[in-house]
Structure formats: structure tokens, C-alpha cells
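Appendix B, record 7
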Amino acid sequence: MSTYTPSAYLSDAIPEQPPLKDIGRFGKSLEAGDFIERLPWGEYAYINIHVRPQYVKAYQERQKTGEKKLKGAGWTHRQKPKDLIKGRWQLLLMLAGSFADYGMMKFWGVALIMAATAAGMVKGWGEFIGFSYIALGYLGLHILFRYPFTWLLERHPELIVKDRGCGFFRPTGMVKFRTWKEETFEAPFIEFDPYISFHVNPKGPVSYKLLLRHRYTGWQTTVAQVFHLDKVQLYAHWDELQRYMDVSQPLPDVPALEQFRPFDPTTADYDAAGKRGRPTDYWATLDLTQWEEEGYPQHLKRIGAFPWSTLEDRMEKSVPNLVQGAMV
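C-alpha cells (predicted):
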């Protein structure tokens, strides 16, 4: 059974925090030019995000085989890990994702075929053959990164995964992550402010990130990233993460944490009182087909329909000038 330390996060007992330093409008424009929204602290919608069909399927497969897809730290009642991918692999994985993406393959495939046809009509078939080689090369890279590369990483994840001891720690209320200087930064969860920022990707579509920014140093870490149509899902990410860190709340009822519920004191008491309202093996025995076709689509509708803007921001009562000093 895990135990909580005095620094563990309690949403109904957030201690008074030091005021924010006013860095001025110019400083804010430099540090947070892409920040569009600060999210509230301490009041919950009780909506989880890590219940997608692929998460349920992976959990059920692990329960049957006892195997894990990735090595390194796993999400437990003690730690939600992060920063597991080795730094030198980050760029290669971004490149691999671009080439493996079906949408990008179709876009560049059509573009190259049109370019080859136009060049052939204007300059002759020699130019057509040249563009054809480029198209075949792109197709080859797509197949390489889509299949052999993915196969290799699934069977040898230790190549790219390294547990640096970073993550969100429920029993202590601490957050630890790697900075761009390749140094480890650690601070209490309550010293971070959640922001949503937007990014224009090289592929074209806008994406949104949920960032935690340490209000007294400026160090920040990414919690989740979604495409622009799924921006509302970042609210559910923040809701779930808060409840994971809040020891006055049971663990979020998601597949990855189901087997750890008996080992967390608050969650064990909650379940023993019958408040969960589900069998102990709910996610392990869930009808995946029904969840994928009916349950999860309804869950997404609930995320979209919830009035997120009505949630109270309890952190404003603990940080004297939070509204005035916030980045947005």
C-alpha cells in the first residue's frame, strides 16, 4: 500500500503560494506568444481521456499475456512517467512519423505523379522517369518506416526507451522532467500553471498542446498534444491529470490503473465503500467491440458537451496575483 507525504497535492487544501513576478508585456510576448488559454485548478468534470479503444485493447492483451509493449517505467498508483524516449531518437521518430503517415503519403504521391506527368509533357519522358524515381523512393521510405521500422521498435523498445526517473508522482505531489538543457527539473505540482498553446506543424494543420509552466522559473513541459479538431480533449487531459495527483480523489478509472487501485489508500477506501460502481476487473473484461462502436463515441460527445469554462479556479485563491501575472 502506497503512503502519501505531507507535500502530496490536495485540491481542498492548496497552501498559499508566492506571488508571480511581473515580467511585463514584452517579456510575456517573448515567452508565451503561442499561449492562448490558462486552465483552472481544483474543480473537476470527472472525465477521463485514457479510455480510448486502443488503450483498452492493450490492457486486455497485457492481462492475458502478462507482457508489456514498452520497457521502462509504467503508469502506476505512484508515478505517471514521462520523458522516456532517448533524446537522439526524437528527430528520427518525427521523421519516421512523417513518412509513415498515410495522409502525407497520399498527398506527396499525388503531387509527384502530377509533377511527373507535367514534366513529361513539357520536357519529355526523361523528366517523367526522373520524377517517377523520386515517387518510388518516397514509397520505399513509407514502407520502411511503416513496417520494418515499427516492427523493430515493437520488439526492441529498449533501443529508444530509457527511464530517467521523470514523471508525475502522486504520493509526493512532485513533478520531474528533462529541460532543453538536458537537465532534470523538479518542483511541486501546485507550482505549475496549465496552458494551452497552438502550433503550426510543418505538415500544415494546426495542433494544440497542453503545457505545464513552472510559474517561478519559466521551465515548462508538454502533457499532451492534439490536432486542432480535438482541442477540447486537452481539457479532459488536464482534468484526469489533476485527479491523478490529487490524493483526496481516487485514481482515474482508466484501464492502465485498474490493477493498481487496491494499492492506493484513497482509491482502496473509495472502492471498498462501493463508490466505484464497477467490478474490479471492469476494463479487463469490457466488451471491446461495443466500447469502440458505441461507448467511446458517447464518451467523446460527453467531453465535447461539458461546460469546461464553468469550472472554478481554486488556484486564484492561493496565488495573490495569478490573474494579473499569468501569461494570458
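Remarks on this record: Strands lie at 35-38, 79-81, 167-169, 174-178, 184-188, 192-200, 206-214, 220-227. The first helix runs from residue 24 to 31.
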